[in-house]
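Sequence only, no structure available. Ideas?
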Amino acid sequence: MSLTFRAQALSTTELCEVSLGGVFQVRGTSNPVNNSEPAPLGHKTDSRNRTAAETGSRTDQVGIPVLVFGSSLTAIGVIRTLGRARIPALSVCSTPGMIAQSRWYRPLPELAGTDPQPPDLAKILEGLSIQKAVLMPCADDWAEAVAQLPDRLKDRFPASISPAHIIEMMVDKWHFAGMLQRENIPHPRTMVLQSLEEMEALPASYFDGAFLKPLDSLSFTRRHQVKAFLIRDKADAIATMSGAQQKGNNEFPILLQEYIPGPPTNHYFVDGFVDRAGTIQTLFPRRRLRMFPPLLGNSTLMESIGLDEVEGATESLRKMWSALPFRGIFSAEFKYDDRDGLFKILEVNARPWWYIEFATRAGVDVCSLAYRDALGMTVAPIEKYHIGRRCVYLPKDYKAFRNDHGNLFTWLRSIAGADGAVFAWDDPGPALSYIGDVLKGHLPGQPKR
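Reply:
I predicted one. Tokens follow.
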């Protein structure tokens, strides 16, 4: 692998050229001053001088809209990314929430007053007057629905997405673990438990350093408001599953998975896009800096890093995508295991993810790639991005920082210059809505959320 560096000091950021097996990146400080694409290497960023070939996402637009399914932070990031790329987007969701405050929010008029759900997708699409639209799901259940769409609708409503059995494999964590085992890809030790009787028959040592992970994380999280069950030992595992059953939630089958020790900074993500020919057109790695809740939570502060820092992870991804007919947007989570020096893959979101807008701000617009790919247009690789750029989910990150007994001023210094996960200067509505909801939840007489 060749490594060549060419640096030029600028007034606000430092740019370096890094050649890593043909992939070029822009290495900068953690405090870029704008949200534009990275500059051509060796030149100062100037949006007035960007050409269509440089931005890529603004060329050959044909006016075909995107139907964006979902209302979460993921969907907000998607409609913002599409809006800035001048790609029309229409939102499909039952409870819009803060996405409705975005300047780019456009509900699908024909669904006004309805409650669109993933199982009804084919029926919904058949009833639309839109001649053609690209589909972009922002949650697992919508991704499954799009992948399972009948062939008669796929030309009218194309999507850059994997076949249904691949999406199902990514969503079902046991099938995913089985695939990793077959392909000899490093991952945590995992086994499936079908019943309390099977759990009780296992030796107590099997539960040491493990946790209980659902096969379907989306529905599990909706029921329990947590991603998985943390357990102390075998007795605690049995008590946890028994308690869930008594409340009417039979969570079997469930996975007993090894918990890889290490701090939040041992968590890495590699996001990217695979086109219809099976070519990886871009990779965007980032490191988690803080998380909340502490053990099985989500990232609250992260930074973009170079591909040379996650070679083991990208090797696993290339091996996996060469073995599977994967297509579309993805975000893969890894944890570096200090015990053996391996990046172990935890899961893959085969769709847009929470911090997709952060990738766009750093120079990696996978939404536009997916749009072009779905329409059969040329998809050019994205080979440069800002390294050292950070993103913070403010309220949750303060909780994470406070967990480590830090004070307010130290926390503010630690997030200086970071992009906001919800706030955007050109689209403040969702953040203001979020702040309003938080304040309402803390007023006397208001229910906590």
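The chain is about 30% helix and 20% strand.
Hope that gets you unstuck.
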